[in-house]
Amino acid sequence: MQKDQSIDEANILADDRHCFACGKTNSIGLKLGFTYKAEKANTSISFNVDHQGWVGVVHGGLVSTVLDECMAHTIRKHIGSAVTASMNVRFRRPVPVGELILFVGEIVRRRGKVIETRASAILPDQTVAAEATAIFMLI
Q1: Cβ–Cβ contacts within 10 Å for residue 110, how many?
Q2: How do the domains of the chain map onto residue ranges?
Q3: Cα 67–Cα 27–Cα 13 angle in degrees, nearest 5
Q4: Where are the beta strands (DSSP E) in the chain?
Q5: For domain 16-138, which architecture applies?
């Protein structure tokens, strides 16, 4: 890592608007925007061919990224800053390129600094394409 790119541990959760998932200044990022309701965070995205793995199918790593981001944003909005400790993703259907996909993240349970969450990727026909559960640690 170059000196100017080193991690500043005092500001590790600072928002410089360059996050790959939600940063508005990241030229190659997803630029996700979120809405919040109760203890949930929602975002929608239509992935393009630059996001595919197999032909016409969004790469699973990007689907996982958005699921993780939904859960993190839910916690940040309703509780505070946290980091992902572990995450499990289950893919049920392919996520097609070019269709608007809804992602919903929510808080399941809080035990001290440990936050349990879940998120879903929902196709236009309301079918769940992928779902995740995760453990976050409050910072």
Answers
A1: 16
A2: 16-138
A3: 55
A4: 35-37, 40-46, 82-91, 100-111, 114-122, 128-138
A5: Roll (3.10)
Contact 103, 131 (CB under 8 A): no
End-to-end CA distance of the chain: 24
Give Cα separations from 79 to 35, 40, 71, 86, 110 (angstroms): 16, 11, 12, 18, 10
Gap between the Cα atoms of 45 and 50, Å rounded: 13
- Cβ burial 44-66 (10 Å sphere, 16+ → b, else e): ebebeeebbeeeebbbeebbbeb
- Calculate the dihedral angle through the C-alpha atoms of 52, 24, 104, 71, rounding to the nearest 10 degrees: 100
Instruction: Give pLDDT tens digits for 34-53.
Output: 889 888 999 999 988 988 88
Residues 54-71: pLDDT tens digits?
A: 999 999 999 999 999 999
pTM value is: 0.85
Using DSSP's 3-state secondary structure scheme, residue 48 falls into coil
